[in-house]
Amino acid sequence: MDINELLRGVDCPCGKFHTCDIKYVYIEPNATERLRDICAEYKNVLIVADENTYAAAGGRVSKALSDKTTQEVIFPGSQILVPDEKAIEAVERMTDETELIVGIGSGVIQDLCKFVSFSKKIPYMIVATAPSMDGYASNGAAMITDGMKVTYPAGLPTAIIADTAVLKDAPMDMIKAGFGDIIGKFSALNDWKLSKCVNGEYFCQYIYDLTYQQIQKMLDLADGIQKRDEKTIGALMEALVIVGILMSFAGSSRPASGSEHHLSHFFEITGIVENVPYLAHGLDVVYSTVITAKIREKILKSKFPDKLFRLSRSQYEKTIKEIYTDVADGCIALQDKVGNYAKDRLGVYHEKEAEIRDILSEMPSSEEILKILDLVALDINEYYSLYGEKKIKDAILYAKDLKDRYTVLWLNYDLFGGDNN
């Protein structure tokens, strides 16, 4: 697919004209050299990276911008960079004379640049160093503020530059994470269709189908992932960028993020709160896709009850505070605002039970997802051994409280609550 053709917009049968305000996407060998031309109008450039991403592509970027006045914010590469208030301040205090921000990296660097670009009204470009996630072309910045994982509306990059020679040499875990992020769309798309059924949420078949095509493309090319085949890695990056563009088309991350992402966010947030390890985002996403497939299988095998599950307010607050500690109040406030616990969806569930079951049955089974993991030598036992049975059960029940989005986690909780056998 010609991404730059997609960027021109789509007059969609859903009734919307879908647009995405990115000017350039270059995924090719020596793509960094494109910076010379597309940055021609700028004189003062701020480069943002960490030590690892700068080592991967910083030299190429500096060479391409050698005629500019540049400043650099280089974060340590020896620890996980958290996109929190401290990191934001480190970037913002360097922007007084800046006309353009150029990020070198992937997820966190991208989100930091995106957030500061939007708040300071300075354009930014991203030079990708790993095909590890789908946020390159999305208009949301996933930040940690007040201890909560919050996705803020933010601007899009002027350009996405991805040198396939750099991408193929990224850490293999990051490449597998990008593949995992794509496979997680099985779950996200199913959740989107489920919410359309239950809540009447906006749904676009064109976006759904094109996202699904990216999954199929990567299944067909999975053999080249571990071989670091440059064309395969380039195709993975293309799929991730296309999904990001489709999020802009949808006006939200719906096509790409559902229950599997909520579980991933749970492990990240509790990992930060408890100061314990957690997996890379895309790995958490694809392993959590196995879990959400099992949840769907359980629902399909079960009879819908005649009463919604609900804890008392005091039990709920006690449980949330035990799980989320310092960020519990934010979760409670969010759910009070959205009103999910006050909604009685039981009538809708029974009225549309047949349609709900049909939708859930479209999702590949947990065994099928496990076979996909085998294609790239991903072992879900690392997920089980790192998090353990209790933490995974807590995630199934309460990852939903981190977000305002309806997914199969809410369906499961409404129908069965703590019965997660």
* Strands, count: 10
Q: Spatial order of the strands in the main sheet?
A: 3-10-7-6-4-5
Poorly predicted residue ranges: none
Which range does the strand content fall in? 5-15%
The fold-level CATH name of the largest domain is Dehydroquinate synthase-like, alpha domain
Number of helical segments? Answer: 19
- Based on the structure given, which CATH architecture of the largest domain is correct? Up-down Bundle
Structural class, from secondary structure content? alpha/beta
Radius of gyration: 21 Å
What is the terminal separation in angstroms? 43 Å
Query: How much helix, percentage-wise, in residues?
Result: 40-55%
* Number of separate domains: 2
CATH homologous superfamily identity of the largest domain: Dehydroquinate synthase-like - alpha domain
Provide mean pLDDT, rounded: 93
CATH domain class name of the largest domain: Mainly Alpha
Overview of this protein structure:
With 421 residues, the protein is of the alpha/beta class. It folds into two domains: 3-169, 3-Layer(aba) Sandwich (Rossmann fold), CATH 3.40.50; 176-416, Up-down Bundle (Dehydroquinate synthase-like, alpha domain), CATH 1.20.1090. It is 53% helix and 12% strand. The protein contains 19 helices and ten strands. A six-stranded parallel β-sheet has the order 3-10-7-6-4-5. The radius of gyration is 21 Å and the shape is globular.
